[in-house]
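Fig. S4 source data, part A: sequence.
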Amino acid sequence: MAFEPFVWHSNPPADIPFKESERWKNIRFTGKSRHYPVADTWYPCWASDGNLYSPFTDGITDGRFAKSEIVSHRDENGHLLVDYTTTTCQALLEGDNPLDLKITATELQYADAFPYAGRYACGSLVYNGYWYYGTYCLGPYGRTYFGKNSYNWPHLGPFVGFRVSDDLGKTWTPCPHTAEKPIFGETGMCGWPVKIGAPHFVDFGKNMEHSPDGKAYLVAHGSDLKFYPVALENFTHNSWITGDQIYLIRVTPSPETINDPNAYEFYAGKDANGEAIWSNNFEEIQPLLEWQNNMGCVTVTYNAPLKRYFMTVTDGTTTVSKYNTYILECETLTGEWKLVTYMKHFGEEAYFVNFPSKFISEDGKTMWMCYSANFAKNWTGEPMEANPPDSAYGMVFQEIQICDIE
């Protein structure tokens, strides 16, 4: 679809904790876009063969139907029967033009979500011929707390770990961790907040070529007991699309290390000189960023021409209404992140927003935004509009330009 170019002017809330960028403000939509009517949950990773590889779920792509929510029904005697088997899938994206990609799905993969209500795709990395595919859980099923049923589908459960492929998704070695015993030991049970629930790999370019130290970094949104009791009573503080904080972890990726919790380092704040502290002890993890009830799903891409990291954060508000997305920039991953633009009701319900590094222009000023949108078009009685045009369920690409401060 083509539409008239326009600038989306930043409109941040008064309490936003980030300073404005000195270099950029607002983004311009060029009017070039493409909606692929497929499943959602797309995080394209640029591999050494020049192709993109991505997870997907909850829909049909190239004839493969994936659904990550569990299935339950009652038998003739009224007994509840639950099938905890969930599916996620993956696809090859071929082509150099985001408007004309060939999408090829491979075989569905199955995973046990017990005792949660779903198991979904998150961090995905193709590096040196290996594909690392992460999953996380949502909604403790049938549990109670405070005398209430805690089956809240959006509530964030733990990050489980990675399955690994050495043939670009044709076959997989299953994740050695389970939903009951995830890699970092978090649960999300009884409303307990999770920190590393749905991590995403920082996009360092083709085969991770711009990693500063050869390590893979992951960003994740979550919350902690700092906001007790609100976090325990209100799942919108800690859902698949909402949170209070952003966390940062890193690992040297290999089939031997990717599922070893002892191989990871966790961002643990800064020392007296302002240098980042890294710890192998998960209990020492500290938020990279914090904004109570205004954070959510997060991705980061390194823009090599501009020598800047760009972070997208989506605040999913009630999880089923209009969302807000904002873009931050920083010279380093642990530096002071500054606001480029705050887009109220972007999509109007856009989620899983990311900038695939393959489609960054030579000067870095033009990028392509990948996202899904408007899965809950009218769940609250308020219709969702496509804003910008082409925003819809599936995989959407929008060409954008970062606006210099004049």
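Fig. S4 source data, part B ends here. DSSP finds one helix and 29 strands in the chain.
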